[in-house]
Design goal:
3 helices; mainly alpha; 81 residues; single chain; 0% strand; globular
C-alpha cells in the first residue's frame, strides 16, 4: 500500500507539472489570478487545481482528471501527428 501511494502521488504531481509545461489554460484554477475551475466535478479531483489534497498522494478516493478543455488540448498535442 505504501509503494502504491508513493507511485500515485508521484504520478499525480508529474501530471500537474506537465500541465504547466504545456501552458494549459486551466492550471491552478480557483487560485488568485487564475480562472475558476470549470465543470461539475469536485475541484480537488482535478490535476489543474492549485491546492493538493490527500487524494493526490494516497491510494484512497477517486482518480484525478483533467478538465475537458485541457484534456482536448493534451489530446491534440500528444496524440496527433
Amino acid at each position: 500500500r505504501l509503494w502504491s501511494s508513493v507511485g500515485k502521488g508521484t504520478g499525480n504531481t508529474m501530471a500537474h507539472e506537465i500541465g504547466h509545461q504545456f501552458n494549459l489554460p486551466d492550471m491552478h484554477c480557483d487560485s488568485a489570478g487564475a480562472p475558476p475551475c470549470p465543470g461539475n466535478v469536485s475541484h480537488d479531483l482535478l490535476y489543474e487545481y492549485y491546492l493538493q489534497t490527500a487524494f493526490s498522494y494516497t491510494d484512497i478516493g477517486p482518480p484525478l482528471q483533467w478538465t475537458a478543455n485541457d484534456a482536448a488540448i493534451l489530446t491534440q498535442k500528444l496524440l496527433t501527428k
